[in-house]
Specification:
8 helices, Arc Repressor Mutant, subunit A, WH_DNA-bd_sf, WH-like_DNA-bd_sf, single chain, elongated, Tscrpt_reg_PadR_C, mainly alpha, three-stranded antiparallel sheet
Length: about 200
Amino acid sequence: MSVRQSLLAILDQGPCYGYQLRAEFERRTGSGPALNVGQVYTTLERLERDGLVVKGGADEHGHVHYEITPDGREQARAWLRSADSPGSGARDDLATQVTLAATLPGADVDTLIRRHRARLMRDLERIERGLTDADDAADIPSRLSASRRDSRARADLAWLDSVEAQLTKGPYAAFPLSGASDRPRRGRPPKALSDAAN
């Protein structure tokens, strides 16, 4: 779900085409599992179907730009304020949401961090109650599972503390959409470059 919401949040900054969205996503979320450009276009089709984006015209390079709709803007901004429990996919939803919010002009990353911290503290209280209730030696699977959730919540809290400290240190500023794309050119390099390489 974080990819869908992330693309909407980026489109809230301005129209983009698919490869540009992929580049913006990677630039704003740092390292992690690479985002397949096919996934970007499939997600854009679904967002268009759901009325959250509209397909615009093509530019002089043939890139079809997508624009966010008012419903899409509302959904993107709501996601940037929410502190829902992260999904269980390969992508780290918490890290994706927080790092993306830190780069988007207008996103309130401090409030987002506070909300995630409060959610994680509530999660820890529930987990600790579960560990106390599962103190029976016969209930080892429940204890092991709760122990894993406890470790993950504590690690997420420590990471949020680190993020907050880094953003407080500065210099830090959100940044606008990049006008350039790092899309590789097709075909042979220009003659001057190929001659210089020899």
